[in-house]
């Protein structure tokens, strides 16, 4: 048995294997339509009732890659000469169970913001809202939000 890390021949095979296993972006028409809709949300002027979007598709249809592609196109570059950071898009994973406190902690973790686990949900929410406002976030992407749906369905059928 040959370990992949021990492949010789200038590691050409290892490079090929990694390339084959890497994620791919295929800009098929529906994906491009979703990106255009997200771009519309990004450019929408601030109003009292901001538009939103829920992206639903079967498992392994590329939703996460699509969301990352959009997120990466607006990823800020923070350098020492920047006086205040602007982070237009924040990407988080929903907690595995519907827990409001865990939700706010995930957002704070996305910012690498310090927080106290013993803080109340209201205190964490206040901290999140303050940060989102200060960095002028326009879009909050919540991946794997179906966790909430499954929990609600479980409670309803319970």
Describe this structure in words.
The termini are far apart. The longest helix is centred in the first third of the chain and has 15 residues, at about 30-45. By secondary structure, the protein is mainly alpha-helical. A two-stranded parallel sheet has the order 1-2. It has a single domain (about 25-155), classed as P-loop containing nucleotide triphosphate hydrolases (Rossmann fold), CATH 3.40.50.300. Helices cover about 45% and strands about 5% of the residues. The chain contains six helices and two strands. The protein is globular.
Percentage of residues in helical conformation:
40-55%
The name of the CATH architecture is 3-Layer(aba) Sandwich
- Strand arrangement across the biggest beta sheet: 1-2
Please tally the β strands and state the result.
2
Number of helical runs?
Answer: 6
CATH topology: Rossmann fold
InterPro entries: P-loop_NTPase, TniB
Organism: Mucilaginibacter pineti
Protein name: TniB protein
Pfam families: TniB
